[in-house]
Specification:
- It is a single chain.
- By secondary structure, the chain is α/β, with parallel strands linked by helices.
- The chain has 3 domains: 73 residues, no CATH class; 118 residues, Aspartate Aminotransferase, domain 1, CATH 3.90.1150.180; 242 residues, Aspartate Aminotransferase, domain 2, CATH 3.40.640.10.
- It is 40% helix and 16% strand.
- Strand 14 and strand 15 form a beta hairpin.
- Helix 6 runs antiparallel to helix 15 and helix 17 packs across helix 19.
- Bound molecules: pyridoxal-5'-phosphate.
- The site of pyridoxal-5'-phosphate (PLP) has 15 residues, from helix 8 and strand 11.
Length: 460
Amino acid sequence: MSASTSRFARLPKVDRVLAASPLREHPAAASLKKLLVQEAVESLRARLRDDDAHALPSVEALARELAEALDERWLRPHPRPVINATGVILHTNLGRAPLSAAARDAMVAAAGYCDLEFERASGRRGSRFTPLRPLGRALLEAEDVHVVNNGGAAVLLACTALGLPGGVVLSRGQMIEIGDRFRVAEMAAAAGARVREVGSTNRTHLHDYERALTGDDPPSAILWAHLSNFRQEGFVASVALHELAALARARGVPLIADLGSGSLGRGIPGDEPTIQEYLRAGADVVTCSGDKLLGGPQAGIMAGRAALIERCRRHPMARALRPDKCTLAALHATLAAHARGGDDVALPLQRMAAASVESLRARARQLGRALGWPEDQLEFRATRAAIGGGSLPGATLDSVALVLPRPGALEAGALARRLRLGEPPVVTRVQGGEVLVDLRAVEPADDEALIQALRAALPG
Ligand SMILES: *Cc1c(COP(=O)(O)O)cnc(C)c1O
């Protein structure tokens, strides 16, 4: 036996780990337990490959560790709630928009049997989209509205249903990447629509579009993408949406405008365009996400001309992109909150954006006090919070963060990790060697849970 083979002979045997009492007695499915043990043994094998003196756990210890991992990690509900102390309100990695209490209740209520596609008066089949349409049409000021699973799906469906056979015209200045390496032009291409690039990276003119629309191989649609996550400065030129809309109308080609952020205009700081403004400017179909500035669940909203929306709704692809009952319930509740009127949209996103710096500072002070930290040693930092979610680039909100003390010169990264792994998990901001708890995106109702988590992570 070679040295390298004998080194692996020390590895615990899968069958023996499975037979050890902590795992044998665990009620989880045998296939899951086996998978877990195999993966653990594989990772130990990799360790031994790098370091043949690596200490190995006993069979019993490994079985105990894996039985605990089953309960703590594998079988626990996921995703798990976290407290967002990063100061980024629409945090893409933390689930974007926090839903209102009404939207959460609506999701739970819809989870069992519900009248999703059922007309109670007639007892006949209905459409899952019918109850949303009046709210959507009124709020978005659109002839008609359709809903799919996310903003990307809305672009995909619009380009598929409206962009064939001639393809879509898209400015090179709007060939944006929206995150996680997804690109608007590639989504259009994935829809089967030829992307016909016009203009240059920094400058696109109306005559570029005019030329693209002339000839004996006309494109089927124009695609416009809002530069949602960056800005262009310097020697730049772009065509205003209303000018492009006039051209599209004159040539009889639909204009699809991917707005992305989906603001309805109330309770959002900055100058982000709204869905209504895009429609008023003459876009024929506007697409956006439900979980950005709308403050709702992950969804893709399509709003615009009745005949075009109908073509999207009737396209075979629409079936593959249709949202489930819980999403629709949460979206309906979110639109209803927008529709109830009054100045105050009762959604967490709007409340968080509207909170005054003074109120955040008062809560931060209260946090420190509740933790028993001496008042004169509390440290605060003025921070810039962000709406986030790839919307409003550079638009920030003044905010305030509590600087966490670090007992025994605990390293900032180590403290932040401890908080992330705590219960409830707290995601902080580490900046300049400090751990900052920014209250902008923390629901006041979570302050008590935040105090508990901080107390657990910072003993003494
Ligand atoms: C966010 C965004 C999308 C994608 O929306 P998802 O809901 O994340 O799929 C598409 N286009 C633009 C301009 C965006 O900002």
